[in-house]
Amino acid sequence: MSELKSGSNLEKVLKAGHFAFTGECGPPKGANVEHLKEKIEPLKGMVDAVNVTDNQTAVVRMSSWAASTIMCQEGVEPNFQMVCRDRNRLAIQADILGVYAMGIRNMLCLSGDHQRFGNHPESKNVYDIDSMQLIALVKKMRDEGKFLNGEEIDVPPRLFIGAAANPFSDPFEFRVYRLAKKIDAGADFIQTQCIYNMDRFKEFIKQAVDMGLYEKCYILAGVTPMKSVGMALYMAKQVPGMDVPESLIKRLRGAGKGKAGEEGIRFALEQIEEFKEMEGVAGVHLMAIEWEHKVPEIAERAGVLPRPTV
Amino acid sequence: MIVADRKPLKEILEMLDGCNRVLIVGCKGCVSVCNVGGSKEVGILASILKIAGKKNGLDIEVDEKTLERQCDPEYVDQIKDVVADYDVILSMACGVGPQFLSERYPENRCLPAVNTTFFGGAVQHGIWEERCAGCGTCGIHHFGGLCPIARCSKSLLNGPCGGSADGKCEISKDVDCIWDMIVKKAMEQGRLDDLLKFKPAKNWSTARDGGPRTSVREELVQ
């Protein structure tokens, strides 16, 4: 990690050794630019970069690249997400060139939720390449200046390459190897699935540390504050690969009527404090789902402000 | 084998609207084995159509014939002397059958009575599962003899994805996660290293993506 690969703010913050803090923003279900700007506004100055989701949960929204460019115009650095579900390798490479041309410098490579979850379950999926191959493709385009077919690129895209890791899905024993494989494929940084089971995460990160993975790649721990008991129950039962301990649900219930949201934030703040001290963790990825306006308060109370200027 | 399911009766009746003389043609190949389009099922469908016709006050004549195979001109030829007697030929073979019939008998209307679903096998009596996607370049030896293209909902070559939970796929608790099986098998066999190797993007040109496919065996071509 000697010289900058992309020059993105996120890369510079991480490279300078700061504890990174990233946010997330889902584009609107429509072309409502004002709504998008309203969601972006509270994130300004609060985070180092903001993930812009790509038809998350397979629900059609404004395209992640378009929302990312609007975010750039608003002065917030996007982390452009791309899933393999909706594009073949032609569209993927075209979009990578396009987003770079529009000033985007971070990209998160994902397989994507199956369309069965979404609002177009009758659609045909693509999966021409998978997330691992997408990581390798972006790296090849950036470092070799070549398309997947080996042809030269006239001005290669220089992107900071992100990937996801879910320490809570199965088979658990393989998860750290899959992380290692993503890093070998070219991931510069990792953002994990939302963490609620801290014991299991600690076991995972210890394995990553033992394998020396944190020295090759920045690992950002995923945090999503629970807004309500209902949300916790939904996450626990309906979202595959999500591990929500019963103790957390009890804690939220115990907070009393109307206070579960505050208790959810407190739990998230306690997690962030732990992550700051945890070997192998380079930052936190805060996914305040449809709760963007709470980010300034959470960032303030987490003591991660002001964000470093590098 | 090729696995199929019979179309709903309502759909078949809609297709047959206005037809008085129907020849149901079964196939003794795959669809017989998966109990959907063999002589037995042809007989059942014929009876159902006759009853439905009577119920609706229609004068439908239904005859039955089950061929050795419908994917071979030699057998498709066997009904050449009778097809002119029918308004419609209703094939109970996989999607290949009604097309071979349509091509051989251009004067006739040839309709499908089944929905062709997948290449698979019987995991227990009455239950079939998909095993092959016919991608044209078999690579299951890289995955412990299990196919992630046909059996992973996302056809991942570097799985498992983050949606794998308790051995099940994220799309449904009724669907096994093939990557869970691939990983566990590799671990049990001490061959985990095979899975740590990066699998590059697949060449899909041998699959349907490369256009309709033809297989030529020179030594057999006359």
Automatic annotation (TrEMBL), chain A:
GO terms for cellular component: cytosol. The keyword Ribonucleoprotein does not apply. Its cofactor is FAD. It catalyses: (6S)-5-methyl-5,6,7,8-tetrahydrofolate + NAD(+) = (6R)-5,10-methylene-5,6,7,8-tetrahydrofolate + NADH + H(+). The keyword Flavoprotein applies. It comes from the Bacteria. This is Methylenetetrahydrofolate reductase. It comes from Candidatus Desulfacyla euxinica.
UniProtKB/TrEMBL annotation, chain B:
Pfam families: DUF5981. Residues 112-205 form the Methylene-tetrahydrofolate reductase C-terminal-like domain. This is Methylenetetrahydrofolate reductase C-terminal domain-containing protein. It comes from Candidatus Desulfacyla euxinica.
